[in-house]
Specification:
The complex is a heterodimer. Chain A is mainly α. Chain A is built from eight helices and three strands. Chain B has three domains: 71 residues, Monooxygenase (Up-down Bundle), CATH 1.20.1280; 147 residues, no CATH class; 135 residues, no CATH class. Chain B contains 19 helices and eight strands. In chain B, the strands form two sheets. In chain B, strands 1-2-3-4 form a four-stranded antiparallel beta sheet. In chain B, strands 5-6-7-8 form a four-stranded antiparallel beta sheet, covered by helices on one side. Classes of the chains: A mainly alpha, B alpha+beta. Chain A: Belongs to the SKP1 family.
């Protein structure tokens, strides 16, 4: 019978135990587990995830362990032929607290969720980052996200022309 | 860190943005600008916000972003600006694509009326208006024959009074009588404008689940109250078909209607009878001449259906993008109507389990389904999960392959 806990090794050489249920919420780990059926149960290496971030991921998985399996919602067939905008509202209070972290941590979790293929967590991070971007001017975005303005005046002029010009101007 | 985030991740974030935030993100740095210019993001926005692209503009997908932003920016920069009739015209031209407009005018109440040729006798048209910053589709329907022009609109239940254009729309010309738009429970009101007679009539009929009853009611109303000798049942049928077509009517409803009226049955199979498979050798010769460009191929082989060509071109070049306009170019209006009718009605099983459809043509239909819903090929990891689009696709594709 399969063990109830799984060992993983993080990028900072920490070995962390997580339950099989939580591990299976990650498609990446799940695939590795399926590939290693019958083999010696060694710790699964996760070279792209630090222990700090993995603990965050496990926290999220613990809270959402009883959620229904994710369904293909985004491109679901729509009877009325209306294309629905993605809903970027985070409704779960726990999730709201969860994403209340430094942007550095958020992007680490995003990368980890992508690498581990935890769909719900990945979508949550995308929504949160999108919400952070909304309502901000380019200057405010640069300041908030620590982005260097590497656009030249020519770039900006070209953009104004492409995105803001009238037909007569262009 | 942020400016070096992988593009595919950034796109997933940007998918949650509205157009304005997307523009601002694109003005942040060069790498974000590249991602923010991704056509798929703008195409999605365009689908969410049907903002005013004319059919000619739609032909060039590179214009999505620019046109969307230009026009949307115009609305935002000037808050007092509201869409005017020119916006409306562009908007409904976009909606109506690929039906070539044959008649259009703006009424004195700023209703925009537009008709479209549909094969040789039929037409549809839309009635729209705009309030505040929104363009609203009030109602739609119509028909057109070689001999007469009829314009009709049907007010749908559940609309607020403020959604309707006002008390004078149904007024008969030269008459003091006015037909108001008063939604009364489950009542529809149909206005028919005989364009070549400068005459308008208004018919009222009740909603019923039995569509034959609706048809009979309309006809009797018309004959009793208006005595239009040339307003045959077929004419009313066409009106009704067109209205219902846009309100989730099934192909079986259409066929029942056709049988009921003793009109020529409308067979979905007939609609697709023009499908022709392209011989592989012919295709290979053509592709050798033009290098795999879809438009060039279709120009070289105009005698074959676009579905068949596209299936082959996709095999040749999996990155192929075929635009909606390109699809429309190679579909007959009737094909589009029947297909849209089915797609708007329900899930895919309605198509796949409908005995009217040739099973062998269904594989081709997948492409059309994907274009219909996603504006392009749906490329994602395979799944057999029931209830999902791909799950259904897998299920029915297997069924088709088995039967063929």
């Amino acid at each position: 019978m399969a063990s109830e806990s799984i060992s993983v090794t993080t990028s900072d050489d920490q070995t962390i135990q997580l339950s099989r249920k939580h591990a299976q919420m990650s498609q990446t780990i799940n695939s590795m587990l399926e590939d290693s059926v019958g083999a010696d149960q060694e710790a699964i290496p996760l070279p792209n995830v630090s222990s700090e971030v993995l603990k965050k991921v496990i926290d999220w998985c613990t809270h959402h362990e009883n959620d229904p399996a994710p369904v293909e919602k985004v491109k679901k067939l729509n009877k009325k032929r209306e294309y629905k905008a993605k809903n970027s509202t985070i409704s779960d209070e726990w999730d709201k607290n969860f994403v209340n972290a430094e942007l550095r941590v958020i992007v680490d979790i995003l990368l980890a969720a992508n690498y581990l293929d935890v769909k719900g967590l990945f979508e949550l991070m995308c929504k949160h980052i999108a919400n952070e971007l909304k309502g901000k001017t380019p200057d405010q975005i640069r300041e908030r996200f620590g982005i260097q303005d590497d656009l030249t005046e020519e770039d900006k002029a070209a953009m104004r022309k492409a995105w803001g010009a009238t037909k007569n101007d262009s | 860190m942020w400016s070096t985030l992988a593009d595919e991740l950034l796109i997933r974030v940007f998918q949650h943005l509205d157009w304005q935030a997307l523009i601002y993100c694109g003005n942040t740095c060069s790498s974000w600008r590249t991602v923010a210019c991704d056509e798929s993001l703008w195409y999605d926005l365009l689908r969410q916000h049907p903002i005013y692209l004319t059919p000619s503009e739609l032909k060039d997908t590179r214009l999505y972003r620019r046109e969307f932003a230009r026009r949307a920016m115009g609305l935002v920069q000037n808050h007092s600006h509201i869409p005017d009739s020119s916006h409306l015209a562009e908007f409904i031209e976009w909606l109506a694509d690929p039906f070539p407009p044959i008649n259009q005018f703006v009424s004195h109440e700023d209703l925009y009326l537009l008709s479209y040729r549909f094969e040789d006798i039929k037409c549809r048209f839309m009635v729209l208006s705009y309030y505040d910053n929104y363009i609203k589709e009030i109602s739609k329907v119509a028909l057109f024959t070689a001999d007469h022009q009829f314009f009709a609109s049907i007010s749908f239940i559940g609309h607020k009074m403020s959604d309707f254009p006002g008390p004078t729309f149904g007024q008969r010309q030269g008459s003091t009588h006015r037909e108001g738009w008063r939604p009364k429970g489950k009542t529809w009101k149909m206005f028919i404008h005989f364009a070549n007679r400068d005459e308008v009539c208004a018919l009222q009929f009740s909603i019923s689940n039995n569509r034959e009853v609706i048809g009979q009611t309309i006809m009797l109303e018309a004959m009793r109250d208006y005595l239009f000798p040339d307003l045959s049942f077929d004419m009313f049928l066409l009106i009704l078909l067109h209205s219902l077509t846009h309100d989730s009517v099934s192909i079986n409803d259409i066929i029942n209607f056709a049988h009921f009226s003793a009109a020529k049955p409308i067979s979905a199979q007939n609609c697709y009878s023009s499908f022709k498979e392209v011989p592989v050798r012919t295709f290979e010769e053509a592709i050798g001449k033009c290098g795999g460009d879809f438009v060039a191929i279709t120009n070289l082989l105009p005698q074959y259906s676009w579905e068949s060509l596209k299936a082959l071109v996709k095999g040749y070049n999996s990155d192929l993008i075929v635009t909606r306009s390109q699809i429309c170019k190679y579909w007959t209006n009737e094909q589009i109507l029947v297909f849209q009718t089915l797609m708007e009605n329900s899930d895919l099983s309605q198509i796949y389990e409908n005995p009217l459809f040739d099973k062998r043509s269904l594989k081709i239909m997948w492409d059309a389904v994907e274009f219909y819903h996603y504006g392009g090929p749906f490329i994602e990891q395979e799944t057999t999960e029931e209830g999902t689009y791909l799950g259904q696709k897998r299920k029915y594709r297997d069924m088709v392959e088995y039967q063929t």
